[in-house]
Amino acid sequence: MPEATAWQHQRERLTMPKIIKEHSLTGRITPKLMRQAFKAVKRNRGAAGVDKVSVQMFEANLDTNLDALMRDLKGRTFQAKPLRRVNIPKPGGTKTRPLGVPIVRDRVAQEVLRRLLEPIFEPLFHDASHGFRKGRGCHGAIERTLELHEQGYRHVLDADIKGFFDNLPHKVIMDAVCQRVADGNILGIVEKFLKAGVMEDGVFKPTTIGTPQGGVISPLLANIVLNQMDWALAEAGYQHVRYADDFVVLGRTKAETQEALGAVRKCLAKLGLQLSEEKTKLTTYGKGYEFLGFRLSVQSRRMRDKSRRKFQDKVREITTRSRNFGKEVIDALNRVIRGTANYFAQPFATCRWLFQKLDSWIRMRLRAMKKKKRKNYNDNRRISGRYFCRKLGLLTLEQFCTYKDENGETRRVAPRNVAT
Length: 420
What we know:
By secondary structure, the chain is an alpha+beta fold. Mean pLDDT is 89; it is low at 1-13. The protein has helices spanning 4-9, 31-44, 55-60, 62-74, 104-121, 138-150, 164-167, 170-178, 184-194, 218-235, 254-270, 305-318, 327-344, 352-371, 377-380, 385-391; strands at residues 83-89, 96-101, 155-160, 198-200, 203-205, 239-243, 246-251, 281-284, 289-291, 294-296, 301-303, 402-404, 410-412. A hairpin with a 4-residue loop joins strand 10 and strand 11. It is built from 16 helices and 13 strands. Helix 8 runs antiparallel to helix 9, helix 10 (218-235) packs across helix 11 (254-270) and helix 12 (305-318) runs antiparallel to helix 13.
């Protein structure tokens, strides 16, 4: 069993806050809340749903649309429309991930529900949960994981829930929400979203299980359900870090993580879920493992290979030789570089060497694009790296690298002079 120190570390988080049910959430739906919800949906952009109404089209008659939606939400006459099925490719393979795109009107309604429910459930969430919570994120989850490694928790249960969003039973979701919410109208709206169905290739398919990836409220529902697992693991004395359905359990010994594996299986079985046996494994910090896009090990904290390949695929698409070389190419590359670096160039990361290699590879792609063919190495060096970076404004991954100084302040690493 886990050592006594694990119990001491969790002492302040062992007892779940007292649950008091909310009875009158419908009355909190106001014109101000409706408008705030629409602004959030507009910021997130997104494509149109099955009705082909875009955010801009909805906004053109905003007051009327919001008033009608508020009447439906408060008057128990709201009906959710089916989601538009979109299959996006998973990186590094031929498999796809199904997303459900709600219509704009339903996205606003989901955002209203999210804003009503989140303040109720947030105080109940365990500290190990980092996903889709204000002031928390992937980097905080990784930093907490590394902190536990430094405390001696070197053995890792790298867990993967099999088809979490697709296989989560509706009854489990509704039971979890009902523990804190007693407003029948709000509960009915949540259930309508779960049972809205999807339209795929013009054919309606009912949804009897799962919560769709792509829905505004789905991440909150995931946290509400998996919060039960968080508390069960904590009360059993285990250390874990979770981001949505991606989590690791850490122990001081292999036996501890083996016991944790059984505890996780038991928790998930109660939720109607199971682990993916192919993707779940016991490992150590010394051997390394992947978590939230990083490869974490004693030696390094870098981009995992799948993330690197995904980045390179984006660069290849932009720098294909059939395209004309121009400012728009540099601008497109800078967006990809900035987005990747903002995520991976963290003070805890050891990506600098890899970033230098990728920066050099990008410039090679640009030289081949400009010359319309890939010449030998020495010939391509005639177009210097300084030309791309200083004259054309090409960003480099390396220039985003950071570190913590002796005062704990985050500093930028001084990049090397670009010559190639």
